[in-house]
Amino acid sequence: MANKIKNLLISGLKQKVYPGAVLLVAQGEDIVFFHNVGNRAVKPIPLPMEKDTIFDLASLTKPLATTLATMKLVDEGLLDLDKPISCLIQPFPWKDKADITPRLLLNHSAGLADWKPFYLELRLPTEETKPGLRHLIMQEPLYHEPKTVTLYSDLGFMLLEWIIEIVAGQDLSSFLNATFYHPLALETLYLDQITRDRVHERQSYAATEYCPWRKEIIQGHVHDENAYALGGYSGHAGLFGTALDVFTLTTALVKIFHGSRSGLVSTETVRIFFSKQGIVPDSTYALGWDTPSRKNSSSGRYFSSNTVGHTGFTGTSVWMDLEKNITIIFLTNRIHPSRSNEKIKEFRPKLHNLIMQELGYGQ
Question: Mapping DSSP to helix (H, G, I), strand (E, B) and coil, where does residue 173 land?
């Protein structure tokens, strides 16, 4: 198994799918393949990829940070998924959004726009930056009527961060550290804060893009411009971590899902969040998590329908087959030095297919 997968990872390097990658494959709690290839940086100087390289996880922030915090608040009875956000945010002058709920935001069916370049309008972070941005989002017209269309939305998760702060009474980073990251001893999983020094040495990180806006190669701070302008993170981006810490966290969730672990959150709550909602017909989204699409899924052909996962813009992904108990964490720096490289879209499902075939599930 190992040789075939290593050869495919090396072919990804030769095809310039990515400068470097870390791949972790597990059956249950047992890691059956863990390998690094290529470089974590090629500019300004080459640095080899290591298994403990820290990645900008990009939109994995959505399931592994914002969704996690929401899950905890729901589990403790502090947040109702179906209570309109107009009951939580006061005052609430935006009538067109009064009936939007946390469930709709988590499910990408609230009718909000997908993305806006807010960073071009914001002064770099002050105490007023996030409140100002949240009001800009609320002033944006809805793209669709809620519950009618699925549109993957960064804006929805920016609002979820706001709701978490209101209900939890503390910022998202502090809440996650107290409820999940520190109890699980996740030493590298954290939300970025650009007003502070990097948590680890710059060279410990996988580099991302040469950013024309910031005029530098980004390494050790968040790539996403909106998250950067907000101080390093928001509900949609800003999470950093290693493959092993992502595995530790996802394994805990899978064990809770199967009822073989207690603490953190309840099995019932995890199962709700891992379930497709059926709000919009044919939508693949659960709550904060995606599930495999029938055609052209990034998870490939062999994951069961009882699977959850997510991808991140920087070249990161995690897929967990809850039926077969297989987890694949694939972290790359495919946008280094430029985001124009999209070869991973074709490569990732090919890799997933090979892994599942080698594990005996390629039927």
Answer: helix
Q: Measured between alpha carbons, how far is 300 from 261 in angstroms, rounded to an integer?
A: 29
Count of helices and strands (H, E) across the chain? 11, 11
Positive or negative, the CA dihedral 218, 58, 319, 34 is positive
| Alpha helix positions (H), 191-242 | 225-229
CA 275 to chain centre: 17
- Give the model confidence (pLDDT) of 178-208 as tens digits: 999 999 999 999 999 998 888 889 999 999 9
- 97/115 Cα distance (integer angstroms): 17
Asked whether the beta carbons of 227 and 37 are under 8 A apart, the reply is no
Q: Give the mean pLDDT of the chain.
A: 96
Number of CB atoms found within 10 A of residue 3's CB: 8
Closest residue by Cα to residue 283 from 293, 273, 268: 293
Over residues 137-170, the pLDDT tens digits come to: 999 999 999 999 999 999 999 999 999 999 999 9
Q: Which sign does the torsion angle of CA 77, 83, 86, 87 carry?
A: negative
State the amino acid at position 259 in one-letter form. G
Q: Which of 139, 170, 193, 331 lies closest to 250 in space, CA to CA?
A: 331
Dist CA 315 CA 185 (whole Å): 25
Helices (H), the chain: 2-14, 61, 67-75, 102-106, 129-139, 154-168, 172-176, 225-229, 243-257, 267-273, 344-358
User: What domains does the chain contain, in order, with CATH numbers?
Assistant: 2-60+174-358 (3.40.710.10), 66-168 (no CATH)
Residues near 187 by beta carbon (within 8 Å), at least 6 away in sequence = 245
For residue 338, which amino acid is it?
Answer: S
> Which residues, including other chains, have CB under 8 Å from residue 142's CB and lie 6 or more apart?
96, 97, 111, 112
**Pair type for strands 216-217 and 20-27:** unpaired
Amino acid (one-letter) located at 194: I
